[in-house]
């Protein structure tokens, strides 16, 4: 039953995250952005089966690769997310088309890892995929929270815009 529960959780979280990433979303000011990844990691680690006992070295390599892919996808997704502030100072985020490409590449890499594991005869549990998803969401949320903190409203009440922070010319041309 644990495998079925993990599969349902993976599908539900992936559909929810992918469907919501292309809509503008308010970035919450609270510090609880790590809770969902922590719950996913707990679900992945709650039972045995993360590493195949008959192929410990290969299973450990595949788990490490899954985690590295998850971290890279999370960093790329967080970096390509558009972040801005409204005049009231509220930060918003929306993923770009580049984030969709990153998700596609990540899914292809994960399918490749699954294929390598199947060729090696390694029994792969959904726990590794759940850990990779947790790593992706943790890094993405951390990147977005970090980037959103750097956006502060300007003194005139407007949020940062293109060209903010660019030094103005000191000398004007004579007419």
In short:
With 175 residues, the chain is mainly alpha-helical.
Please give a structural write-up.
The protein has 175 residues and is mainly α. It contains 5 helices and 3 strands. The protein has helices at 2-21, 35-45, 56-80, 97-120, 126-149, and strands spanning 25-26, 82-85, 91-94. Strands 1-3-2 form a 3-stranded antiparallel sheet, covered by helices on one side. Helix 1 (2-21) packs parallel to helix 5 (126-149), helix 2 (35-45) packs antiparallel against helix 5 and helix 3 (56-80) packs parallel to helix 5. The longest helix is centred in the middle third of the chain and has 25 residues, at 56-80. The chain is elongated, with a radius of gyration of 21 Å. It starts with a helix and ends in a 26-residue tail after the last helix. The mean pLDDT is 81.
Extended strand count: 3
Rounded Rg: 21 Å
Helical content (DSSP H or I, runs of 4+): 55-70%
Secondary-structure-based class equals mainly alpha
What low-confidence regions span 5 or more consecutive residues with pLDDT below 50? none
Shape: elongated
Strand content: 5-15%
């Amino acid at each position: 039953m644990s495998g079925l529960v993990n599969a349902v959780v993976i599908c539900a979280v992936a559909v929810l995250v992918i469907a919501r990433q292309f809509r503008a979303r308010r970035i919450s000011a609270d510090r609880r952005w790590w809770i969902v990844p922590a719950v996913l990691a707990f679900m992945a680690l709650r039972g045995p089966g993360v590493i195949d006992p008959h192929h410990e070295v290969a299973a450990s390599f595949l788990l490490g690769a899954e985690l590295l892919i998850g971290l890279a996808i999370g960093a790329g997704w967080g970096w390509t997310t558009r972040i801005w502030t409204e005049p009231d100072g509220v930060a918003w985020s929306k993923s770009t088309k580049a984030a969709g490409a990153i998700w596609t590449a990540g899914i292809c890499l994960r399918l490749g890892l699954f294929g390598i594991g199947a060729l090696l005869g390694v029994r792969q549990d959904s726990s590794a995929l759940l850990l990779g998803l947790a790593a992706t969401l943790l890094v993405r949320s951390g990147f977005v929270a970090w980037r959103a903190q750097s956006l502060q409203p300007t003194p005139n009440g407007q949020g940062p815009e293109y060209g903010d922070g660019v030094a103005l010319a000191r000398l004007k041309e004579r007419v």
